[in-house]
Design a protein that fits this description.
Layout lengths: L12 H6 L12 H4 L6 E5 L3 H12 L3 E5 L11 E4 L1 H9 L3 H4 L4 E2 L2 E6 L5 E6 L3 H6 L4 E4 H14 L3 E3 L4 E5 L4 E4 L4 E3 L2 E4 L7 H5 L8 E13 H5 L2 H9 L3 E6 L2 E8 L4 E9 L9 H11 L5 H7 L6 E7 L13 E3 L14 H17 L7 H30 L5 H9 L1 H5 L13 H8 L3 H14 L1
Parallel strand pairs: 1-2, 1-12, 2-8, 5-14, 12-18
Antiparallel strand pairs: 3-7, 4-7, 5-6, 9-10, 10-11, 13-16, 13-17, 14-15, 15-16
Helix pairs in contact: 3-7, 3-13, 4-13, 13-14, 13-18, 14-18
Length: 461
Amino acid sequence: MQMTSYPTQSLNFLRDVRRGREGGAASHKTKDDATASTKLNVIVVGGGLGGLATSIALARNGHSVTCLEQVSELKEVGAGIQVPPNSNRLLHRWGLEPFLKNNFVESPGITLRRWENGHKIGFTRLIPDFRENFKAPYYVIHRGHFHDALHKCALELGVVVKVTSKVVDYDLEAPSVTLEDGSVVSADLVVGADGVKSLARPKILGGADSLPLINDFFAYRATVDVSKIKADPELAAFLESSPGQNVWVGGDCHVMTYIISGGQKFNMVLSHPAHADSSFGDSGTAIGDMKKRFIGWDSKLTRIISMIESTVKWPLFRGSPLKRWVAPSGKVVILGDAAHPMLPFMSQGAAMAVEDAGALAESLRHMKSKGELSQALSVFERVRQNRTGQMQEASVINAQIWHCADGPKQEARDRAMRAEVEGRHFIWSPNQWSDPTTQCWCYGHDAEEAIREAWKEESQS
């Protein structure tokens, strides 16, 4: 059956046939199935979520991987993180599920609420829709638990994880990295998964760095014990009747909440524009500033905010698409936040890093010799630049949709979401989590399959 030149989802059923599915769970390649014919020695710089995911994807394919992390103890700071189907499908395929154990929460739905009274204005049903349509669940989890699961999986696959190994320089030609102690580590391929302050990025860009912008939004991040919230009868009833993610949206601000840590912690991200206050990181004044910012919002929300005992205000980075991710030598590449930092309003930052990891490993799998490394990285770069650039754009658009000031635009937005709240049929929505076209593009994407298609096109050109 031929593919179409026009946008349609009418042939999506063919993907199930191609992957050997008959409406069941996502296909699962074993480690042996994934093994690359050309094995590489790879250095991954950065032991965060993106670096560990990359290490796992490459090790599964038979590559020898060393992951270098500058801190003395491998751990992830922060609180909750969302793991949507487009990344979860890959993680399940890679065998991560046993390492997550009971630490994740599968969210039943995402509710958008009006800022001043908490009235439901938008709703995305996740269970059972996302498992059925995208062959993977939508999880929320504590970042620390997610990071620990990735770390344990990487070690089981034979990844060598070295802490207290700060990289201070890259040699793009060798390729190699120089550590703070003066030692030099060489490999066939160096992957810079070293975050928004990447040292690899300016090297690859020829010395003129493209720094992420930090002047769009800030966010207060905090958790509250669920038991503390449930001590208030009205809030206990709210948690019981409104499981999943709840997002209060208002002019220039929003609050995202969900339960993590196996149901023990209530995670909160309270976002506001940076132009209102350029300071950040001062935990001494953060709680008072945060409470003032949300005076007049839904009383249920403000009562929960009053229970927050500690918080720190974090800058939210936004990047612009880079002209290149791959060094001219074709031996060093960046990915994750080093290549495409984005606002968190599609909850896709870490998911894009996981997709990068799967895409890179898949592209390297198509090499017939080490001489094709540059070509493999070029295919990876082309495919992933397009995908992540669009996700950066979608994240900015979501902020604009959520942060409408009260008035005609906000009223039109809310009217357009009434059908999904009332359970009526709809074919489009301002809610990008519910809009069928955006939903399919965002959550239906298979990063490994996209690379296979790109290689097929490469061989035909």
